[in-house]
Automatic annotation (TrEMBL):
Gene designation per UniProt: bshA_2
Record protein name field: N-acetyl-alpha-D-glucosaminyl L-malate synthase
Domain named Glycosyl transferase family: residues: 175-340
EC number: 2.4.1.-
Pfam families named in the record: Glyco_transf_4, Glycos_transf_1
Originating organism: Parvicella tangerina
Length: 366
């Protein structure tokens, strides 16, 4: 099978990691894979470092005619069985390419849990006849985008997957304790993500404030990541007088090494396609406390694989944190359940296998 992946983003976030995992598995299976990626992007470097055939294009905006014609020329040269679109911009440019003569089996990945804009152009894009399947990252995303899609048979769900080997042999090395001068008995509660609005770090900070008001446990709260919300988060930390217990580390490239040191993983997002960083916590057998935003409840099942609270419910989150930090039986139960579910449904191998099954179903119908 000949596959072209379109990666339009300059930076590397969760979606790019999923593309990389998918490509790894497809190449291991002997498929012919190529990537069209944004010039000078992190993904271009990834392709170079891993000897993945690629073509760098500008992907400058959703109406970039040079990129659209570039996609069409790539298909004319290679005759791909599937072109997989991994972002809104990739989607727009592939549809634009059809105006220049592109005729291909287009598969779209949908990772975000908010509706399409609903305007005429958006409806045209999502219901274009060359879009053969829309692979949603969760049932919640499928439900939301389904409001736009006329042919519901185009919709399917494939959950994100992670690389369990990435965390094999991981041991607690006290990296954060040593770097930030924490006492051995100090517990660590952390979230690891881009500092974006939908991650709702304001609720994270409010949860810390509520926790410290009621409980006197030795805990430090880590915000690990970087993004455009940093200043507003820092301002809210100062306003809530939680600067003594919250540490913002910025971006770190040693996440697999520091994960085993986390005692509870706290995700406070108001919107998530799936919340796949929770899967990394599962892999490290770290208990999770999270909000029920977007597709998170499809991963974190309350009292089974973690504890859930409504979106922005900082008081409830604080009490869930206290329970998880102090109840050893609960910790053992949810981490064992979570690791079992992870192996059954959320590995990169399962993700790639199910994606390939949808590819084959599309090809068989054309």
């Amino acid at each position: 099978m000949k596959i072209l992946h379109l990666s339009s983003e300059k930076t590397w976030r969760g979606g790019e990691q999923q593309i990389a995992y998918l490509i790894q598995e497809q190449m291991l299976a002997g498929e012919s894979v190529m990537v069209a990626c944004k010039r000078d992007s992190v993904f271009e470097k990834y392709c170079m470092d891993n000897r993945i055939p690629y073509q760098a294009l500008s992907f400058s905006n959703s109406f970039d005619m040079a990129t659209a014609t570039g996609i069409k020329k790539l298909h004319k040269a290679h005759h791909f069985d599937i072109i997989h679109l991994h972002s809104s911009r990739s989607h727009s440019l592939a549809i634009l390419a059809t105006k220049f003569g592109l005729k291909a089996n287009l598969i779209l990945s949908r990772r975000v849990d908010f509706p399409s804009s609903g305007n005429a152009l958006s409806n045209y894009k999502y219901n274009h006849p060359q879009i053969k399947k829309i692979i949603c990252v969760s049932e919640k995303v499928k439900e939301i985008i389904g409001q736009t899609i006329r042919d519901k048979n185009k919709l399917c769900v494939v959950y994100d997957g992670i690389d369990l080997k990435r965390f094999e042999g991981s041991e607690k090395r006290n990296i954060l304790h040593e770097e930030f001068g924490l006492s051995p008995e100090t517990k660590i509660v952390a979230n690891i993500s881009a500092l974006a609005g939908h991650k709702d770090y304001i609720t994270f900070v409010n949860t810390v404030a509520a926790f410290k008001k009621k409980h006197d446990l030795p805990v430090k709260f880590f915000i690990i990541g970087e993004g455009d919300q940093r200043t507003s988060i820092e301002e809210h930390i100062n306003a809530t007088k939680t600067s003594g217990v919250i540490i913002m580390t910025g971006f770190r490239d040693d996440v697999p090494d520091i994960f085993p040191e986390i005692d509870v993983f706290l995700m406070t997002s108001k919107e998530e396609g799936l919340g796949s960083t929770n899967l990394d916590a599962f892999a490290n057998r770290i208990p999770v406390v999270a909000t029920a935003g977007g597709g998170i409840p499809e991963v974190v099942k309350h009292e089974k694989t973690g504890l859930l609270a409504p979106v922005q419910a900082s008081e409830i989150l604080a009490e869930h944190l206290f329970r998880m930090l102090t109840d050893n039986e609960l910790q053992t139960k949810v981490t064992q359940n979570a690791y079992k579910v992870l192996n059954e449904s959320f590995t990169k191998e399962v993700m790639a296998k199910k994606t390939m099954e949808w590819y084959k179903s599309v090809i068989s119908e054309t």
